[in-house]
Design goal:
The complex is a heterodimer. By secondary structure, chain A is mainly alpha-helical. Chain A is built from 11 helices and no strands. Chain A is globular and about 70 Å long. Chain B is α+β, with helices and mostly antiparallel strands. In chain B, a hairpin with a 2-residue loop joins strand 13 and strand 14. The longest helix of chain B is centred in the middle third of the chain and has 17 residues. The chains are: A mainly alpha, B alpha+beta. At the A-B interface, helix 6 and helix 7 of A face strand 7 and helix 4 of B.
Chain lengths: ~230, ~375
């Protein structure tokens, strides 16, 4: 125990750093997809819209173990996508990237819900006004819709990040519980609670996760309020 | 530059079926709410797609069902001024103003940007955000944004309807200037007779999705069978020149040789003015009245008397200043012995001419457009 930060042991510290890394990438990678899906759900009508909506929300209602197992089936070394990724050097099963994937998918519904709500609140008249002023659909999206959805984007990202930090079921099913590779905070807490005398260190990690989640939530509220006061809607 | 419109558009149970052709200048689409005005203007903007027909501005075909042409809104070179301004709340006034202008190549930009900003008095607002602007300021920015987009056609959908009277009076003159100085055709939707009288080069009357009349404001507003917003909107439109300002707060106008007094108009002497006189504000007399508080007495000859369904009648008096319509009772018309060809005097109180009824006036379009 020569390497300890504050009052966390090196293993605990490792789990904290890994969790932050996993959650960060999970959120970042799901953002473009989340924005696209949320915008389509908010602004377009097409056959199968309800199916897309259902798929997005599936991770919210399925038992996380099931989601994790389905991920293992598709992205595992034998899975249809996993097999395609392997030659490219992209293995996700039992790697921290896989933990990110699982965490991203579990946080995805939260991101989309919040963004979709933001897009729906934008007066379509503003987008039409932009069109009459000569803006292409892509430019309207970049210059009007997306900036106006910023509060939802921030709130959704924070929620997704917090969710990713706390993801356990799908992660442990998909990528197991390997210290330094896939052992995130919740996995580490779980592992500590399995061994006699682990409650003490577990409690520290529990405290850390409470603080991290709570700060994320506060940050989101703060950003939201700053934005709201900046662009009070007309 | 002619605007030619011939379109049919079904929206639920409502059908818009409008065909008309108007010269350049400011064309008012005049009608009650639900008459299809906004549908029409949105079809011209490309925000709604007609089922059939053609829309042409000058030589540019914006829409032609037969040859499957339908330019998207962004390619129509529009300046659309909405009733609710629709400023982008996350952009400063400056960036709102230049939103459209930035999207066109420099050589395609028309109008001097500084001049537009000066004209609309926006210089001091450039760094503000829309949330901090008053209703009138927002609408001024919206007008500026539309003008700076270098439009080939300006569309305005009841741009004053959401404003209170002082704000309306603040914005109206800008439309007069745009009409008289920019040389860009304007389609202007309204249900206000005062705006028709002040702004219209040509009026297109829309009722139940159909065009019922196309003509100059004076013609449309004096005809109770055509005015879509009810008999209380009937009135006459006179052209006059501002002659002098009097110390007692009145301004003197010359309307075809007749002196008319109205509450002070803040324009330079010599300005051409247009003024609307509501038919129900006009009193008729069969001889020169004496001992009357009303300042404006205009002699003329009775042209026509149209009895309404109720007790009222509309009497048109041909005067030196132009036709003046008076709404009186049929009983009065009989008591005075009014008949086509008889002499009569129109009496109008100065204060009956509201500020929104009088403005700088480019000349009215030649009659008989269709």
């Amino acid at each position: 125990m020569q390497e300890s930060y504050f009052w966390l042991g090196p293993n605990e510290w490792l789990a904290v750093r890994l969790s932050i890394k996993v959650a960060f990438w999970a959120t970042l990678i799901s953002l473009p997809f989340g924005i696209l899906v949320a915008y389509i759900l908010a602004r377009r009508t097409f056959p199968g819209k309800q199916i897309l909506n259902g798929l997005v929300h599936l991770p919210l209602i399925l038992p996380p173990v099931v989601t994790g197992y389905l991920l293992l089936l598709t992205f595992g070394p034998m899975g249809p996508i996993g097999r395609l990724l392997e030659p490219l050097g992209l293995t996700v099963a039992f790697r921290w990237t896989g933990a990110s994937l699982a965490a991203g998918i579990m946080g995805f519904p939260l991101l989309v819900r919040s963004l979709r709500l933001s897009f729906e609140l934008i007066d379509p008249g503003l987008e039409r006004a932009a069109a009459t002023l000569g803006a292409s659909p892509a430019w309207i999206f970049m210059s009007v819709s997306l900036p106006l959805a910023l509060p939802g984007l921030l709130a959704g990202s924070t929620l997704a990040f917090a969710k990713a930090m706390g993801e356990f079921g799908a992660t442990i099913t998909f990528v197991a519980n390997i210290p330094g590779e896939t052992q995130t905070l919740p996995s580490a807490i779980y592992a500590l609670l399995q061994v006699p005398g682990g409650e003490g260190p577990a409690l520290k990690l529990i405290l850390v996760s409470v603080v991290l989640s709570f700060s994320a939530l506060l940050l989101s509220e703060f950003l939201n309020r700053r934005l709201a006061s900046g662009l009070t809607r007309t | 530059m002619k605007i030619e419109i011939d379109l049919c558009l079904q929206q639920g149970r409502f059908t818009l079926d409008a065909t008309f052709s108007v010269p350049s200048g400011l064309t008012v689409i005049f009608g009650r709410s639900g008459s299809g005005k906004t549908t029409l203007i949105n079809a011209v903007a490309g925000l709604l797609k007609p089922d059939r027909g053609q829309i042409k501005v000058g030589e540019t075909v914006l829409f032609d069902a037969a040859s499957r042409i339908s330019l998207p809104p962004r390619k129509r070179r529009l300046g659309y001024i909405f009733q609710d301004a629709r400023l982008f709340p996350h952009l400063s006034v400056q960036r709102n103003l230049f939103y459209g202008r930035r999207l066109i190549p420099a050589r395609g930009r028309t109008g001097d940007q500084d001049q537009v900003i000066e004209m609309l008095g926006l210089r001091s607002l450039l760094n503000q955000y829309p949330a901090h602007l008053s209703g009138g300021e927002k609408q001024r920015v919206a007008i500026g944004r539309a003008l700076l987009a270098s439009p080939d056609l300006i569309l305005a959908d009841e741009p004053l309807a959401a404003l209170d009277l002082p704000r309306k009076l603040e914005i109206l003159p800008y439309f007069e200037r745009i009409r008289d100085e920019m040389g860009v055709p304007i389609l202007y939707v309204t249900h206000s007779a005062a705006e028709v009288a002040r702004l219209a080069t040509t009026v297109v009357v829309l009722d139940g999705g159909r065009v019922t009349q196309v003509g100059p404001a004076s013609e449309v507003l004096s005809d109770p069978n055509v005015v879509p917003t009810g008999v209380r909107s009937v009135g006459s439109v006179l052209q006059a020149t501002l002659v002098s300002h009097h110390e007692d707060g009145l301004s003197e106008l010359d309307a075809g040789g007749v002196a008319l007094f109205v509450p002070r108009v803040d324009r330079p002497i010599g300005t051409r003015m247009r003024m609307r006189i509501s038919a129900h504000e006009v009193i008729l007399s069969n001889r020169m009245p004496e001992g009357l508080s009303a300042l404006n007495v205009i002699p003329g000859t009775v042209g026509s008397i149209r009895a309404g369904e109720g007790p009222g009648a509309l009497v048109t008096l041909q005067t030196q200043s132009g036709p003046i319509v008076a709404r009186i009772t049929q009983r009065s018309a009989n008591l005075l012995g009014l008949a086509p060809g008889t002499q009569a005097f129109a009496i109008v109180k100065s204060v009956a001419i509201a500020p929104e009824d009088i403005g700088g006036g480019g000349s009215s379009a030649p009659t008989g457009i269709l």
